[in-house]
Write a structure and sequence with these properties.
single chain; alpha+beta; Alpha-Beta Plaits; five-stranded mixed β-sheet; four-stranded antiparallel β-sheet; about 20% helix; elongated; disordered C terminus
Length: about 180
């Protein structure tokens, strides 16, 4: 994408990046762009200052690192997410992107701990509550529209087929 300071590359990274890989990504950003890696509001990484001649080399370096090649749903979790929230995030990231889902759609999983994600806006919010997740759309924890509750046992697990729940949605007043 063309910007005021050259071309921009945006990477939607589905899984945490190992430190050694991130160091190599930083070296590629320095060699082919302006050397700055930014984290976007939706959890992507972006590199600015690429040129028409350097952008293909940067893309090749990114692919050689195993980054940026798979389409994945962007899932953000809080820093202290527990095993259940991490398993749900992995399951969502590893499933094929549903047809018609926009490339910038973000899913946020907040396990409700001390390092909550209340102020971070997301398209789809899952907030851990006893027995499952409150599901809301469009905004922060304070202004998103609550759709209902999904039972924990109905949530996808890595490698498992999606399950369905017949539980009734909880009212918006149930949102913590």
């Amino acid at each position: 994408m063309q910007t005021g300071d050259g071309l921009l590359a945006r990477l939607a990274v589905a899984e945490p990046i190992a430190a050694a890989t991130f160091i190599e990504l930083c070296a590629a950003a320095q060699a082919h762009g302006n050397g700055v890696i930014e984290v976007t509001g939706r959890g992507s990484l972006q590199v600015r200052g690429l040129r028409p001649d350097s952008a293909p080399r940067f893309a090749a370096a990114v692919l050689a690192l195993g980054l940026g090649e798979a389409e994945a749903v962007r899932v953000l979790t809080d820093a202290l997410a527990g095993d259940e929230a991490r398993a749900l995030a992995t399951a969502l990231r590893t499933r094929p992107v549903p047809p018609g889902l926009g490339p910038k759609v973000s899913v946020l999983i907040d396990s409700g701990g001390a390092l909550h994600l209340d102020a971070l806006a997301a398209d789809i919010r899952l907030h851990a509550v006893p027995g499952g997740y409150l599901v809301a759309v469009g905004g922060t924890a304070h202004d998103a529209r609550v759709l209902g509750l999904v039972a924990a046992d109905a949530c996808p697990r890595p490698g498992a087929a999606p399950a369905r729940t017949d539980r009734r949605p909880r009212p918006a007043s149930a949102w913590p």
